[in-house]
């Protein structure tokens, strides 16, 4: 009797666990069936203003001359809209060029088939200039630059390479540039010795982390 009760309890426990396991299983594509469409993005991340190439492949009975619709959902990631179309070649390959201005998600569709969603990060374009690249020891040097797209009110970090890594020496606030899609910054720093500098803006919801090219200040001896 006890053995029968134990077996029944074990069976009930197994049955109770099945829905939970099923709930955690991956959901099939909305179009139904196996996904036969792939999508890739390069470069990723892409720098603001640069071109992004979306490539993919259709695997099906007929792959040549098939229309592929690519849709995008830029930050704040709430609605997908058509971004363009491409035709597959004889091998089922296709490509499309985009210029995202903020972090975005992309997906390819054809008929009932949908690719997996690809998230693309966009780095702000950051510049840095020094008023003097060969300052005297102790001279005050003006560090200026721009961040595109504009991020008025945000801070950037001016960093100096030391001991094999960059450390922040000053911060500057981004300001509006009338008639421009960019923000600007300006900071005066006293340079006492040779140094390699860069400007960095941290990642945030709509953009990835961005950094300028490294600039060198060489103090004559």
Supply the number of structural domains. 2
In CATH, the topology of the largest domain is named: Immunoglobulin-like
Helix content: under 10%
Share in β-strands: over 45%
Mean pLDDT across every amino acid position: 87
Tell me, briefly, the overall form.
Answer: elongated
Number of helices: 1
CATH superfamily of the largest domain: Immunoglobulins
Taking the alpha carbons of the first and last residues, their distance comes to 97 Å
Q: Secondary-structure element sequence? A: HEEEEEEEEEEEEEEEEEEEE
Largest sheet: 5 strands, antiparallel
CATH architectural group of the largest domain: Sandwich
Tell me the Rg in angstroms: 27 Å
Structural class: mainly beta
Number of DSSP strand runs: 20
Give the CATH level 1 class of the largest domain.
Answer: Mainly Beta
